[in-house]
Structures are given as C-alpha cells and as structure tokens.
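Late entry, evening session. Most of the bench is empty. Finally got around to the prediction I had been postponing all week. Sequence below, unchanged from the version circulated by S.P.
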Amino acid sequence: MRGSTTARLKAVLRIFLSENGVGGLTPFGLEFIRSRKRRKEALLKALKSKDGRERAEAAEALGEIGGPEVLDDLLFLLKDEWLLARVAAARALGKISDPRAREGLVVALRDEDEFVRREAAEALGNIPDPESVAPLVDALKDEWAAVRASAAKALGKIGGEEVAEPLLAALNDDDELVRMEAASALRKCVDVSFFLDRLKEESTEKRKESVEILGDLGDPAAIYSLVSSLKDEASEVRAAAAAALGRLGDPRAQPYLLEALDDESHLVRISAVEALEKIGDERSLERLRALQKDAHDLDIREQAFIAMEKIKKRLQSGP
C-alpha cells in the first residue's frame, strides 16, 4: 500500500514539474489527468440529470473537486426545484470559495427554505467580502435560528468594525447557539480597544455588554478598565465587571474584588464572591470566613462557604 502511495505522489510531482516546464509526463501521469477530467465531465453532466438526488450528489462531489469551469453550473443549481440540490450547490460553492459566486449566494440567502439560507450564509463566510455584510446582517433577523447563527459566524470571518454592532445585538438573541456564534465572531474580528471605548457609553446595556465580552476575551490589558467598572453607577455593570474579572483569572484583581464584597448591591457581592472563588488566595479565605459567619444574607453565606472550599482545594493542589 505504501509503495502505491509513493508512486502516486511521484506521479503528481512529475505533473507539477511538467506544468512548470521541467521534465515530461509519464503515461500514468497522463491517465491521472484524463481520469480526473472525465470524472469532472461526468459530474457536470449529472448536474442536469432528471433525478434531483443525482444532481445533489454531483454538486457535492464537484465542491470537493473545484475548478472555475464548474462555477456557472453550480450557480444555476441554486435555483433548482429540488431542495437538496440547492443545499448541495450552496455548500459546494462555499468550498470552492470563488468570489464570483458571491452574488448568487446573496440571492440564496432569501431562498424559501431555511436549509438553503443556512448553507448560503456559511458559504459567504468562506468568500469574505465587505459587500456581503449588509445581506448577512439582514440574515441575523431570519426566523430560523440556524440561519442566524451561520450569518453571525460568516460576519466574524469577514470582520471589520461595521459588523460589531449587529453582532453585539445578536448577543441578546433568544437562541443560545446564535449568542455563542456572535460572541465567537466578536472575539475574532473586533479589537479589545473597541470594547474599552464602549465602557464610556451612556447606555447601561452597552457598558454591561462590553464588560461581559472583555471578560470573555481574556486580554490582561482589560484588567484595570474592568476594575474601574466595579465603581460604575449601575449595579448590573458592577456585577458584570466582578464576574468578568473572575473569568479573566488575573490575581491582580483580588484586592478590588475584596472591596466589592462591601457593595450595597446583593448581586455585586455575590458576583465578587464567585470571582474570588476562581482567583482568591489566603487573603480571600480570611475575608470569606468572616463573611460566612457574619453575613445576614443566606445566599452570601452559602456562596462564601462554597468559595472557601474551592479556594482551599486549589491552594492545596498547588499551581
């Protein structure tokens, strides 16, 4: 088996050298090219089969083979009456990733079937073009969650600050998968400074969103901005900042989280305890022990006990 694989690789190398003006093709190399060409021609013919399943299977195969000569036929198949053929065509065009397919895929984003719309959104992510941003933003409002999730993913691949606001809005989507894809996309395409600037927004919701994303990004450069947000006028922002500092996992935040244990908001205090559970050391144990004994709030006492046990276990296990 290894010998035949080696022979095949040598044949491909000869083909490459021949195409670059070095050496000549062996009979095996010529047959390799001819068989590949015959297969592609057979698949292109199958795209016009009366059997919708055959058309779909041919489209899938052509997506793996690729080549500019298959583009027009696959674009035509996006209008096929057979659902699976349209789905396969959109998927194949995404694999080929030819920029000339963009307009056809944008039209497919409005297909009557959600499966086609999802594949079209995925494919547009593989052909990153700023011109695709507007239709993909519209797809974030699709009635089907899988389409919205694919649109968010595609926007993340295209990138640019113009995709940030739509993706931020998608963080409030009813569907968990959409929210996850939107958050992932934001981490890929927007610089941390964008969210640091948003901490100055008048909108409480925008500040809260930015704090949450900064915690997810995990960039140490955000630590002191998040610490400042522990003093935000809105308790929900302060609570989000405490939680974000916990996710950031930087021990430098510990003194500020200990201060947050005295916050007037129950939610902030709980968030601070949970954050200290992740980054606290002996200093946190001392304060949590006092909190666990003296706090009138049962929730705080319970959470302080849980945090103490986890900190002790972490300290015992070492770094």
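Two things to note before I forget:
The chain has 19 helices and no strands.
Confidence is low (pLDDT under 50) at residues 15-23.
Will write this up properly tomorrow.
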